Amino acid sequence: MFNFKVHQELTCVAEGDGHFFARVGAMVANKGSFTAEKVLLDTNQNRSLLGSVMSLAARKLTGENIPIMKVSGKGTYYMANKAHHISIIKLQPGQSVGVEGENLLAFTDGCKYGVRFIGSGVISQKGMFTSKLTATGNDPQVAITTNGNPIILETPCVVDPDAVICWTGADPSFRADVNWKTFIGQSSGESYFLEFNNPGEVVIVQPSERISGLEIAID
């Protein structure tokens, strides 16, 4: 079994033996004996072949199909991605976390990996789908990246869909604050929000926004 920890904010360190999963190319160093192989279909070993093919198709169609590798061995494995900050999320039994695919770095074999529809990203770069990690085994852990130090909020809260990274619990609702000023370029620029209304959950955002997908203005 592997345990994740953060080293100097920018590196995820996996220590132990067995196997875990990480995005392809995440390794920057290791001490021990490791092998890595790209996952062709599915990380969920108990799923049928048909189920694995359907899972792969869903990830490809939704744009959440980040290349994943299975890392096996024993020792210490160092991972990073573009010097982004690292956070480790430890899930409770049965708990799920929605994660933007581009921000998913690694997860232990106690997590079931899939995709879910949230239907709230028509305007923003958030997208209408997100990766989903569900705790199914012992000590499930997920490593994520943020562009800058993460901002950790407890729900209920409202966040910018272009800054959200991940959340636990129920998916958010989408709210638009659009009026005539939006169409003449006089809006505040904060017209679209994700609302998390289920108390006691956690939302992580980054202090950096993705570029929004729609810009309307009349000069």
From TrEMBL:
Q: InterPro entries from the xrefs?
A: AIM24, AIM24_sf, Trp_RNA-bd_attenuator-like_dom
Alphabetized Pfam families for the sequence: AIM24
SUPFAM superfamilies per the record?
TRAP-like
Q: Which domain of life is it from?
A: Bacteria
What the entry lists under PANTHER family is as follows: ALTERED INHERITANCE OF MITOCHONDRIA PROTEIN 24, MITOCHONDRIAL
Q: What is this protein called?
A: AIM24 family protein
Species of provenance: Clostridium aestuarii
